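Good morning C.,

I know you're traveling, so I'll keep this short. The sequence:
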Amino acid sequence: MQNVTLIGFGAIGRTLFQRMAGVPGLRITHIVVPPEHAAAAREHAGDAQVVSTVPVDTDLVVECAGHQALTEHVLPALARGTECAVLSIGALSEPGLPEQLAEAAAKGGTQVHLLSGAIGGVDAIAAARIAGLDSVTYTGRKPPTGWRGTPAEDVVNLDTLTEPTVILENTAREAARLYPKNANVAATVSLAGLGLDHTQVRLIADPTVTENIHHIDVRGAFGEMQITMRGKPLPDNPKTSALTVLSALRFLHNRVGAVTI
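The tokens, ready to paste straight into the viewer:
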């Protein structure tokens, strides 16, 4: 039995907690939230303990709380030897943070896993990188509701939008910095391939679609690859793809499964 600590209990954390119930070999024993959110978390936490810091005796940490959680909780956990899996990949656009994670994991003699989240093909991109990549371009397209509460509101009127509109065209680093809750996919693709500063990103608000649509174009010595995914959002959070939760579930199933893929 692996004891798992969950960092964050928003839409992703709650859905992951519910989907993990009854999975053989895994048990969420602790849920880490800020003290001001503890009472609300306890209403849905079942037998799991709601705490404000990662317990030292947990086997595995799964982070789904946002960028601040990486510095506040993941880095210390790694440094003392606790294995961690991270969903907030967009946080790695912060200069120096990828190196800090690597150094903390090395210090603790453990690993940090960057989960694929809302996108597929990450394994193929990482494999193609070994032979050399020429270009990686990511285009993210979401309905206007998926961009509420973001800098897109300063670029276009989301309430009156009638046609697809580009709200950002820049590097993956800039996309992840400005749209951390929406552009984790861009950061993930870049870390698998050419890096944050050499991966091109276009973000589009599109009133003609109801799904989150991701398109990746990769070219290099291996050949060419185009991937398009039309992901449905989480019912509780239109900014997040349902596949994000499923990618964490796949990782956890692989931790205890006899066969992994």
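Safe travels,
E.
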